[in-house]
Design a protein that fits this description.
Radius of gyration: 12 Å
Order of helices and strands: EEEEEEEEE
Number of helices: 0
CATH class: Mainly Beta
Oligomer: single chain
Length: 92
């Protein structure tokens, strides 16, 4: 099973880092979902919720104020001005 390596970074700290199967985020032109094998992309983010489905079955949720998301060779980097952990214990 292919995996994504994900980093969620705020201006003042690293919010979350790990392996995941899915990342969804509020892109400027609508919700974007990233799976392993996604083509490279750079997208602006709006305020909303970023969801990371970790490989251990836990879904991590972060309220973000805006920023950007980049994908390159199954590495997803989410950089935001501010992030608040909404939940990081929701089992699937």
């Amino acid at each position: 099973m292919a995996v994504l390596t994900v980093d969620v970074v705020a201006a003042d700290r690293k919010v979350w880092s790990g392996d995941a199967s899915l990342v969804s985020a509020p892109a400027a032109d609508g919700e974007i979902g990233i799976l392993a094998g996604h083509s490279p992309i750079l997208s602006a983010l709006t305020a909303g919720t970023v969801r990371v489905s970790a490989n251990n079955g836990v879904t991590h949720k972060f309220t973000v104020s805006g920023g950007f998301l980049s994908v390159d060779q199954d590495v997803v980097t989410v950089v935001v001005d501010e992030a608040t952990v909404v939940s990081d214990h929701d089992a699937k």
